[in-house]
Amino acid sequence: MTSTKKKTIIDIVFKYFFLFFTILSSSVILVVTGVIIYKGLSPFFKTYSVADENIKLNFFKFLFNSNWSYPEYGIFGILLNTIWITLLATLIALPISVLTAMYIVRMANKKVGAFITYTIELLAAIPSVIFGLFAKGVLTKITGFIANMFFLESRGGLGTLTSALVLAMMMIPTITMLSITSMKAVKKSQIEGSLALGATMMQTNFKIVIKGAKEGIITATILGVGRALGEATAVSMVAGNSVFGPNIGLFEITRTLTTTMMLGLHETFGLDYDIRFTSGLFLIIVILIFTISLNILKRKMEKR
Amino acid sequence: MKNLKLIITIMLSAVTLVLLITSITLASININKFDKEKEVFIYTRDTASGTRNEFFIEIDFKEAKTNDLLLKNPVITSSNGEMLDSIKNDKYGIGYASFSSIKNISGIKQIKIDNIECSLENIKNDSYKLTRNFKYLTRNTTDLKQKAAITIFKTYIDSLDGTNVIESEGAVVDRTGKKHFKEYNLEQEEKMIKDSKITLNIGGSTSVANISRKIIRSFKSETNYNISFKEEYTGSTDAILYTKDSASLTNRLDFGFLSRDLEKEEETKDFNIYDLCKDGIAVIVNSKNDISNITLKNLKDIYQKKRKWSDL
Predict the structure, then answer these.
(1) To the nearest whole angstrom, how far is the Cα of B65 from the nearest Cα of chain A?
(2) Nearest to B27 among A149, A153, A263 (CB)
(3) Residue A266: pLDDT band by 50, 70, 90 thresholds?
(4) pTM over 0.90
């Protein structure tokens, strides 16, 4: 009797113990987003006095202005830049990763496949600063050379294309690893059925394997794009930090939401400091919109 | 029919191959050539930088100190090193950097302004205009012993021995009429601190920290006063805030070093202001660039408007 009672008490204690930690961990995200929202909105309500001038930002001007500098900040150009660079990076990374995954799953012999998988896993573990250094030292020279080849102007290779390339390099391991898993999950009977019906190996690979792994590939893309959107260190080394946006040209210098937050953060104060939180707020919004819309797309595909 | 297809494929691939090879060779020739008809690409530091502050004041373009929108599509770099690296990579770029930092760096070259070169000599005789002053503050205190120690160390900074250290760090000091430290008459102060142990608190700008540390090291090795030092460098603004009697004991400074000039409203009677040394701001371009001189007016111009290298 007493031992059962003791056990129930222990159970209850542990239940609340775990509940405490659950609340603690989930409240972190609430606190973080709360602070970002509060600080990010403050430039629109607070008046900053800088050198005899009183500055208060107008939200709509901020939203539709595309130049970013003190004292007239505008986020429109940076938003477009961020989306454009991420799109470019996805366009580069997605085909490469999916085809790599298909090679590993469908064509490579076991030893080669295991070796490539291992190297891709290693690639995923490389910190972004290292990618940034590589981009600054090597990629800028390559893009500069390409620009030269087409007689285009480039600023020592800094800009949109280099940023997209370095982001693509970071996305590739994420997308490849997840694609491999989802392609391996495609049923053998479907593949064999397709082959038995007279489809060639290539037709089977594209029409059965990729179609079957479609949802996994979309999840992989969501994760990859999430990494690309949030990446700051590497991109800020090669973006060039333009002031006038939006920057669509491949060899133009650019500026993204994350690089904006990083540039000169340690030495600034007042409005120029607080506005970085606004930039962070917009980054959260962009990531949320993107994740939700891709998830909706995924669910619609599942229904079909 | 099948042969025709094959021939077409071969021809097409041959044409693309030839095109590719020619464009690559053209590009590699192009990469080492400097084309004067190309646009000038400007590079600048971010608005929090002290170097940027002084640069735009000196080229008479004060409005651009904190406003990037007034510049003609600049690349913004976040440190001295990034600036040097960017100019090294861009043969049509122009930028500016601290004079002492660009020694022995390949791939870039500094250019003259109004035919005056940025050199130690020209910074010293004021003919080179793009300079900034490093300054230092000493606390005005009523504690006589502390005051005596401050006077002794200040004398050392201003003596030939102290300025020697500063010049070896690549900055410029006016040394006319200065004597060796031992030749100064400090008897009164020495008597005052004779039997006590005194600590001097040193702090201020991180850019001046190197120079300050070297001076303290040489002071310790060359003299044998009973003075010890406590150093903490946190920035010019802190130096102004804490070099006062009214500052709290934990962060009160006796010497505060500055990498910028004081604003009018920052000046008080709590401290004395002295010049430490001068640092030049050099204008730099890629080493492939064949320009060697620029007028101050043109320099302001290219930061404001679209310009070709041939316009200069």
Answers:
(1) 10
(2) A149
(3) low
(4) no
